[in-house]
Write a structure and sequence with these properties.
The complex is a heterodimer. By secondary structure, chain A is mainly alpha-helical. Chain A has helices at about 1-10, 10-25, 35-60, 65-80, 85-110, 115-135, 145-155, 165-180, 185-195, 195-200, 205-230, 240-250, 265-285, 290-320, and strands at about 140, 155, 160, 235. Chain A starts with a helix and ends in an 8-residue tail after the last helix. The two termini of chain B are about 25 Å apart. Classes of the chains: A mainly alpha, B mainly alpha. At the A-B interface, helix 6, helix 12 and helix 14 of A face helix 6, helix 10, helix 12 and helix 14 of B.
Chain lengths: ~325, ~325
């Protein structure tokens, strides 16, 4: 029994992917077609940007709930500025993303507000800002988007390889490199693993958390920009529920919510699972679409439960003397 | 002599800090009575109580949860589930259905608690998932969107204030506050919650059944969500699964944090939360009276949460003294 749970938790991403693909083929014959799969990859890429950013934050043992609002804000900036200048339309949303990330970092790292409340406040604030700016309606680009900006969301190479996918792979590759090879990436593992030890090793906990939050918001902004380019309009409630999807993707990828454990490859698998799942949910006819978020929530709960059980087994293995749990 | 005076000043300071939300509410109320035109009237009074009662009820539960060092962002969705289930039963004329909806919501609350306490999963993540699960359940079981019902015997007492001034909400709220105050300040349960919030490991070692305490806190939170959801539904004789209780959790969290319950766990400040809820409602009313848009009120709420956290974190430093 214990062994079985261990095997499941160690390979939860691969098992999940196999399960999802299997259900997909069973549910609809159109799932395993080249066209559908390239759709899956494209929509998963947009969500994947958010998930990659969330990986940094979760590695530090923090969390960011404001990604959903950030997603909407960057989309709005993109659509409005696309009428002015191509460079501004790309750079400003990303700059706004970094600014919100810095705000998050300030609340969490400098004021030592627990991340879930600090970023909850940011989430409310940014959502309010978006509603204010958009006037609570969908904003369309009046003169249409310039060719170059449309390409970000709709372009593709060789018919099937979409631009969002390429962007996502580039972002994920850079992220993986930073996490594996750069000092700041390694510092995130240390901070998430043991703050006290990090401090003793001369790693600045505040600075590392700060950077993780800035990167997370930046990537959420990138995702929002790509989506806005794809749909050509800014929806004030865009990105609603994305924090759940991103956290689920990261956790399914094997990251621990307590920080210090996680890999970029895991997050990519998790993203793929979540993307395929959303697609299958849209293809099937039996379950009402309103259940989608509920099912994602249940999946997240089950995965963290498995993690918790396997962690508990670790504790039992290494226990010395009497068992002591908090 | 010097010492005594210092002590008295300290005690006064501690009292002010502890009930800062109540004091701020009273000051703001006085300010409005004096300077806002058309403010002093029974309608205003009735409105404040009617609207603050929901946040107060949710806040009472949230206070216990936050006192254990946790957080419950699923209460808004719990309101949705309770309202939808009750509305479905009431539309069939089945009053006992209210109890079934209560049981379902309490079950969800217990699940929250078990995940948090038994499996030590982050409360934020458990309740985030539960928030979407319960919202999905509310939308899923309703199937056809808004559900209306007609139960005049139930609706009438809520809509006709006693003596034209005091609505039924007030008495429900008052009863809840009194009970919670006594439970927290006069019973062992409150002391245990505080002990657990201050130091979970120490609480466990000293023989407190920590899992039971934490699960109970989340169940109480769900209970208040059920009450708030039912009141919300009865008031309008219908329930919209995607609207009822939406984002109410942030109000409840804000009320609790303004009230001075430490976010990292510790003493559950019941009266502080009540003051926080009324303060929040008064600010919302001022926004409405001055035609400030919904988007601004979100931003104001966010700022209040951050400010409250910042203010109460000052308490830990030497300036304010240590016992709050």
């Amino acid at each position: 029994m214990k062994k079985a749970i261990r095997i499941i938790t160690d390979n939860v991403a691969l098992i999940g992917l196999a399960l999802v693909l299997l259900t997909g083929t069973l549910v609809s014959p159109s799932f395993l077609t080249l066209e559908n799969l390239s759709n899956v990859l494209r929509s998963a890429s947009i969500m994947g940007c958010v998930a990659v950013g969330m990986t940094f934050v979760i590695l530090c043992g923090s969390i960011d709930l404001s990604v959903s609002s950030m997603f909407a804000l960057s989309g709005y900036c993109f659509i409005v500025l696309s009428q002015q200048s191509i460079a501004l339309a790309i750079l400003v949303p990303l700059a706004v993303g970094i600014a919100v990330g810095i705000l998050n970092g300030f609340l969490v790292a400098k004021l030592s507000i627990p991340s879930f409340v600090g970023t909850l406040a940011t989430m409310l604030f940014v959502r309010g800002l978006v509603l204010l700016l958009t006037g609570e309606t969908t904003i369309k680009a009046e003169n249409g988007l310039p060719e170059a900006l449309v390409f970000i969301g709709r372009g593709s190479f060789f018919q099937r390889i979409s631009m969002p996918l390429v962007l996502f792979l580039v972002i994920a590759a850079i992220a993986a490199y930073v996490l594996k090879k750069r000092p700041i990436g390694r510092a995130m593992y240390i901070v998430g693993g043991n703050q006290e030890a990090a401090r003793m090793m001369g790693v600045s906990v505040a600075k590392t958390t700060f950077i993780a939050h800035a990167v997370c918001s930046l990537l959420a902004a990138a995702g929002g920009t790509i989506l806005a380019s794809r749909v050509g309009s800014a929806y004030p409630l865009a990105g609603d529920g994305y924090e759940l999807y991103a956290i689920a993707a990261v956790v399914i990828g094997g990251a621990s919510l307590n920080g210090g454990i996680g890999k970029m490859s895991g997050t990519m698998l998790g993203t793929l699972i979540m993307g395929s799942f959303t697609n299958i949910f849209n293809l099937q006819k039996t379950l009402n679409p309103v259940w989608e978020n509920a099912v994602v929530g249940s999946i997240l709960l089950i995965v963290v439960l498995l993690q918790a059980i396997s962690r508990r087994m670790d504790v039992t293995v290494y226990k010395v003397g009497k068992k002591l749990k908090t | 002599m010097e010492l005594a005076r210092g002590n008295r000043a300290n005690m006064l300071g501690a009292f002010v800090i502890k009930y800062i939300s109540v004091i701020a509410f009273l000051v703001l109320l006085l300010f409005n009575c004096l300077f806002t035109s058309n403010f002093v009237s029974t309608t205003t009074f009735t409105n404040i109580i009617t609207q603050a009662s929901k946040v107060t009820l949710l806040g009472l539960g949230m206070t216990l949860v936050i006192a254990t060092g946790g957080i419950d962002i699923s209460v808004g969705s719990a309101m949705g589930v309770s309202a939808i289930l009750s509305a479905i039963f009431l539309s069939d004329g089945n009053t006992a259905g209210l109890l079934i909806s209560l049981a379902v919501v309490l079950l969800f609350g217990a699940l929250n608690g078990i995940f948090v306490a038994k499996f030590s999963i982050l409360p934020m993540v458990v309740t985030l998932a539960m928030r979407y699960i319960m919202r999905g359940v509310a939308k899923g079981v309703s199937g056809r969107g808004t559900i209306s019902f007609s139960a005049p015997w139930l609706t009438k007492p809520f809509l006709t204030p006693l003596g034209g001034v005091v609505p039924l909400h007030f008495f429900i709220m008052l009863a809840a506050i009194v009970v919670m105050y006594l439970v927290v300040n006069r019973m062992e349960f409150g002391a245990r919650v505080e002990a657990y919030g201050n130091n979970p490991l120490a609480a466990r070692i000293s023989g407190i059944h920590t899992v039971r305490i934490v699960v109970l806190c989340y169940v109480v939170s769900a209970l208040f969500a059920w009450m708030a959801g039912s009141i919300d539904m009865i008031m309008v004789s219908s329930a919209d699964p995607s609207k009822i209780g939406l984002d109410m959790e942030t109000d409840a969290i804000a009320a609790t944090l303004i009230g001075g319950t430490p976010i990292t766990g510790g003493y559950p400040n019941i009266l502080g939360t009540v003051g926080g809820a009324f303060l929040l409602q008064l600010i919302t009313m001022m926004c409405n009276m001055n035609n400030i848009a919904y988007s601004y009120s979100l931003m104001i709420k966010a700022s209040i949460i951050v400010f409250a956290l910042f203010f109460h974190s000052l308490r830990k430093t030497k300036v304010w003294g240590n016992n709050g």
